[in-house]
Protein: DUF1232 domain-containing protein
Organism: Mesorhizobium australicum
Amino acid sequence: MTVLDKAKQWARAIKRDVMALWLAARDPRVPWYAKLAAGMVAAYALSPIDLIPDFIPVLGYLDDLIIVPLGILLAVKLIPADLMAEFRAEAIRRSRPTSRGGLAFIVGLWVLMAAALIWLFWPDRSA
């Protein structure tokens, strides 16, 4: 198996687990703290925009390569193994949704950061 094949297999597993976490966040059998973690990871991963846009060199892909997989690992550990296996099987059969909540969260963070930067660097007119 080549490195490219391994990378493709890893990417498919990530996509499957994100979908499984999306399902877990909505299931009443999952503990509330696991639902919270699963929902946050799924919302971020399924959001059509990233916290750090991909066009920013190096940093743009760090969230995709580090933040999402670490979030998945944490959330998966919080969900009972038998339920996670069920969610993974269901995730394979479903199509990928998008997260409007994740989109709103990321856009909200961008607006807050822009407002903070404007406030921080706006020239003091009272002097």
